[in-house]
Amino acid sequence: MTPSQRIKKYLKERGVTQASVARRIGMSESKLSLSLSGKRGLTLNEFEKICRVLEVSPNTFVAAKEDLKEGHYYENVS
């Protein structure tokens, strides 16, 4: 599972919309949508803000063994 997929999973689990996250972190909804679709990378600052809003540790996104087997890596988080 990629970081974007994990973020989407947490959004759904918490009943939080992309629009509300974008608003809370000072990002446009379209920019967040592009980031979560893999068409745009997230800055480290943006990533940390999203983690705070979702109340998850950035460590949650450290590669798990199954991610490495599937060839997922975290090029979008910079």
Written overview of the protein:
There is one protein chain. By secondary structure, the protein is mainly α. The protein has helices at residues 3-14, 18-25, 29-36, 44-54, 65-70. The longest helix is centred in the first third of the chain and has 12 residues, at 3-14. The radius of gyration is 12 Å and the shape is globular. The relative contact order is 0.21. Mean pLDDT is 83; it is low at 72-78.
Number of helical runs? 5
* Percent helix range: 55-70%
Total count of strands: 0
Structural class, judged by helices and strands?
Answer: mainly alpha
Average of pLDDT: 83
Biggest beta sheet summary: none
Radius of gyration: 12 Å
Order of helices and strands: HHHHH
- Per the principal axes of the C-alpha atoms, what is the gross shape? globular
Task: Measure the end-to-end span.
Answer: 18 Å
User: Which residues form runs of ≥5 with pLDDT under 50?
Assistant: 72-78
Estimate the strand proportion: under 5%
Concise structural overview:
The chain is 58% helix and 0% strand.
